[in-house]
Amino acid sequence: MADVLFDCTQFLTFKVSGSREGLTFLSALFEREEDFKIIEDEEISPKKLFHLNEFLNNYTVELVNQEFIGEFDEWFEFDDIPQPIKQFGQNIKELLEGKLIEQLTIIMVRYAYDEKDADNIFVGDFRVENIYDGLFHASCFGNSGNIVVIRVREA
């Protein structure tokens, strides 16, 4: 039986130019309501990065909010999106509109087992205008697994 390695967290991983402008913009978006604490690439636990390495781009941030993944348990109907998830999706849209990052992938982790083979991982590609289609897979009604990987493509 596998043990839980880590749980209840979110990651954004992307390609970024040499400029830190995209990271500054990202921090401003996700910390403005004190919704998330941003942990930058070099400060993320190496065991988390190793566990998710097949999905990571050249830069990753962890969006820490232990309660956020629970919002997906309240998403009963696709058209009735809980406000925190709606705001998260809007932040993703704004982030990509700024054209400061590329190849964005969202990783939602309910829990990650210490044995990777025990994880049930959903991976999907979604256009940014359909971000909520992708995020719905993280709801218990999308029922896509304990880790949901959403590759977001620009319009």
List the topology elements.
Blueprint: E1 4-16, H1 21-31, E2 37-40, H2 46-52, E3 59-64, H3 68-71, H4 83-97, E4 101-113, E5 121-127, H5 131-136, E6 147-153
Parallel strand pairs: 5-6
Antiparallel strand pairs: 1-3, 1-4, 2-3, 4-6
Helix pairs in contact: 1-4
Notes on the protein architecture:
The protein is of the alpha+beta class. It has 5 helices and 6 strands, in the order βαβαβααββαβ. It has helices at residues 21-31, 46-52, 68-71, 83-97, 131-136; strands spanning 4-16, 37-40, 59-64, 101-113, 121-127, 147-153. A 6-stranded mixed β-sheet has the order 2-3-1-4-6-5. The longest helix has 15 residues, at 83-97. The N and C termini lie far apart (43 Å). The relative contact order is 0.22.
Task: Please give the number of β-strands.
Answer: 6
- Which geometry do the CA atoms define? globular
Query: Strand share of the residues?
Result: 25-35%
Helix content: 25-40%
The low-confidence runs, each spanning 5 or more residues with pLDDT under 50, are none
